[in-house]
Amino acid sequence: MRKLYVGLDVSKSETAVCVRDETSRVVLATKAVTDPGAITQAIKAVDGEVAQIVMETGRASNWLYAGLLAQEIPVVWVDARQAHAVLSQMHNKTDANDAAMLAELARTGFYRAISVKSMASQRMRALLRVREVAMKARMNIENTIRGLLASFGIPMTKEQKTFAVRVLTAIENDSVVSDIVRPLVHLRADILRGLAALDRQLRVYVRNDATCRRLMTTPGIGAISAFAFVATVDDPARFRRSRSVGAYIGLTARPHQSGALDISGRISRRGDTLLRTVLYEAANSLLTRARAGNGAHLK
Prior knowledge:
The protein is an alpha/beta fold. It folds into three domains: 112 residues, 2-Layer Sandwich (Nucleotidyltransferase, domain 5), CATH 3.30.420.40; 88 residues; 64 residues, no CATH class. It has eleven helices and eight strands. A six-stranded mixed sheet has the order 3-2-1-4-5-6. It has a two-stranded antiparallel ribbon with strand order 7-8. Strand 1 and strand 2 form a beta hairpin. The C terminus is likely disordered.
């Protein structure tokens, strides 16, 4: 039975499908609904055994990859940046041509498969992303309120403890500004309630996860840092060396070498921004505490 090599160019509603045989001849070029069942049905219309399917990373690729894998179809993910370096060599950029080139990568093996996070890890990451969006929205509202009050020359008192009380006290004598700002105060309150609900979900997971609790024994590491680390690393076995984790999240120095010149520069910042930010905050917390502790005996 002949071997088939498949390339999938995934988009939101439709996926371009290209199937090649061992001789690189295109035996199928079509489009299917972006659904594991529909794509499988299209591929099975060709006589042969699927040897490999190649698809790029992307937003719609996660669940599609899991669906194809559940049907015991050999499928691999390739880094979109690596695929782009190959696909950019084509003169005509179309979904069909992209799928044809991906099928050729599947046939030749000229690709580097990347690890796909588990569904549990993806759900954890989704929780972190939603929490990050909510925090940015709260900060944006607070900065907008401060800017509006400053533009009208309305000072905020520092006597009250909460931000909302300070704002409402400041605008209580100006009905026009109050009508403008008060909806923002209510919207901020809704966001804070949503953040509290997200934090409860996060802490419940951390409380019941042994790895998170072990990570939290490290000074400076709290529930959010531990949760983000577990969600990002997912399966530690996919890293051959422990130091590879630092490179994965962009915390290794960027070398610059030319002749006798050999410089170790700043960190690469190539990798997961969210985890890198969280670990930076954890390290800053640890250094601040250490600095305070080291100087205590000198007083």
